Predict the structure.
Amino acid sequence: MQDLENYKKEKLTINLVWANIIGILILIPIVVLFGLPYYLRNILEIDFKNIMDGLVPLDIAYGVLYGFGAMIFGIVLHELIHGITWAWFTKNGFKSIKFGVLWKMLTPYCHCKEPLKVSQYMIGAITPSIILGFIPSILAIFIGNLGLLIFGMFFTAAAAGDFLMINLIRKENKDDLVQDHPSEVGCYIYRKLEQ
């Protein structure tokens, strides 16, 4: 743990209800950003009759089960990516990482117990959205995989809280320290005092 004697501490938080609303609203630009190119590149080229001929109720049931399983796996992986990235920057590795669920809001979380530089924290916050959101969405456009597109768009939207955290600290000095708040959606900023 770093010596925080020469730092001024300030609490910054995000309203979890607001973060979930942003997560829903962010779907609009995500659909435009990834769904529209997917549609233009892939759907317009597909013969609609061939799709309907191959569609049977059993296919839909398997698709829903597969999709649900992929989402659960992705949620766990999202938090694990936070943990791996932040652990990389900590002195104590995974001993400084805690995983859990805020049951009131059914929101899983990854908590880093050790202060990180703002830039390191931001890298850990954005990494899941890149790996699980942006990359699968872009890949889906080029290979024409609708399931991968839905997965990528979902996990781009699921990173709404991460985007809000990044926005909350983006103007801070990149060498100041940030530490997850232990019980609220937010953090403590430790600004170095002038000497």
